Amino acid sequence: MTEQTLPSTGREWHLAARPQGWPVPEDFALVEAPVQAPAAGQILVRNEYLSVDPYMRGRMNDVKSYVPPFRLGAVMDGGAVGRVVASAAKGFAVGDAVLHGLGWREYATLDADKAIRVDDALPLQSYLGVLGMTGLTAYAGLLEVGGFQPGEAVFVSGAAGAVGSMVGQIAKLRGASLVVGSAGSDEKVRMLTEELGFDVAFNYRNGPVAEQLAKAAPEGIDVYFDNVGGEHLEAAIGALRLKGRAVLCGAIAQYNDTTPPVGPRNLALAIGKRLRLEGMLVGDHYALQPAFVAEVGGWMAEGRLVFEETVVEGFDRTVEAFLGLLRGANTGKMLVRVDG
Asked: Per-residue pLDDT tens for 157-209?
């Protein structure tokens, strides 16, 4: 095992209470915990960037889902990138940059087969966003689940977020006839059209979504990429054309509700229009990873794809970053820089 002088403890975030509705800072606890030296086949990583994501809110509830809930009084987890500071595994050396799933902590000891070495010629945080799970979600959702074809019209909700901003750009680069996005502020709307290439965008806080979408896409849409749910999904069902598709990726508008959602109330339209509404999890689409990295990486190299990031500085502000994410405080991918 090769290693450098290691600290005896590191900080980590625990779930202290299960949120009732919107999470509050008191639902989390910052804890000092022992740093475990790696056993055979393991590595110890000093995290540099952490990802906070909407799906984490669901894991704070004690309900059965596609991933187990976070345990009370225990450290949480999520995407992270960092550098190896001690290695007892072949193929990993001190200083290697790696991507793994043990975020929400400063130091992570993990089996080497649960880490992926990444090229640090690119910004490390990009592997949590544009070249990571976020980018693959957008790519697979639009092209494989949504079956997007050149010449089609696309509507994206939460379009200024990490996934939504990628979906709109991929659609334009793949030949969409119209790309419409919704966002929660006039500044985000301006960014979508002036920087990311969306044809039309609107602030959903400025009026009923259905009315604003009808104005933005008067002839209807073919694909809807749903990051929000609720009123947006209902509006999209009304706007989808014959044999349109809705990719159900997220429902952030409902994650903190304490009562059942009202709608969509117009689901019967899916019958006559022969619509397809399909949920997606990125884990079902990792076979696309090579094609995704090749195509999106090429667009990045050519300067044709813009990736927005909101970086919160400091490990002690991780919860602040997560709570901000739920309220739409981010533009693009929300990240925490551990040493900020």
From this structure: 999 988 999 999 999 999 999 999 999 999 999 999 999 999 999 999 999 99
Residue 210 to residue 234: CA distance in whole angstroms: 8
Helix (H) / strand (E) containing 298: helix 289-302
Distance separating alpha carbons of residues 203 and 212, to the nearest angstrom: 9
Are 19 and 308 spatial neighbours (Cβ–Cβ below 8 Å)? no
Residue 163: name the closest of 187, 145, 190, 186 by CA. 145
Give 123-132 pLDDT, tens digit per residue: 899 999 899 8
Closest to 132 measured CA to CA, from 296, 312, 248 = 296
Give the integer Cα–Cα distance in Å for 133 and 226.
Answer: 17
Give the separation between CA 129 and CA 88, rounded to whole angstroms. Answer: 29
Beta-carbon count within 10 A of 116 CB: 13
d(CA 14, CA 133): 23
Phi, psi dihedral angles at 273 (to 5 degrees): -80, -10
Fold of 133-283: Rossmann fold (3.40.50)
Q: Which two tokens stand for residue 114?
A: 């649960």
Domain 2-128+307-337 has CATH 3.90.180.10: yes
Per-residue pLDDT tens over the stretch 243-293: 999 999 988 666 666 677 767 999 999 999 999 999 999 989 989 988 998
**What confidence score (pLDDT) does residue 1 get?**
43
Q: What angle separates helix 133-140 from helix 162-173, to the nearest 10 degrees?
A: 50
CA distance 52 to 135: 15
- Region for 131 from its dihedrals, namely left if φ exceeds 0, alpha if ψ lies in -120 to 50, beta otherwise: alpha
Of 228, 230, 240, nearest to 277 by C-alpha is 240
Neighbouring-strand partners of residue 81: 49, 99
* Tokens at 159, concatenated: 């379009």
Q: Where are the domains of the chain?
A: 2-128+307-337, 133-283
